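#structure-requests
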Amino acid sequence: MKSLPAGLLKHKVIFQTCLLSQDGYNQETWINHFPMWAMIETSKTKEDEMSGQLMTESMFKLTCRFSNRISANHRILFKNRRFEIIGEPVNLNFENVVMEINIKELTDA
């Protein structure tokens, strides 16, 4: 894949980075690091029963232009939804053109 058509990148996402408080409580504060245009596709969904409740976990695949700033330590914000990066981002074919990132939606439950 030599290039990634801009028309496919229809989701504006924000990569966030975590700061820990220095007060001894190590509270996490997520701050916006940089925005990027991406394509988000549903990858798989699974349901599990936990404590008598049905829990749904949705996995997604995010595709974006290559950036060496992206790491597994980031979190992704899309509209009012938060996603955790699963594993390391993949540099497709080692061409420094396209990245694929497996993500999972974070919920407050």
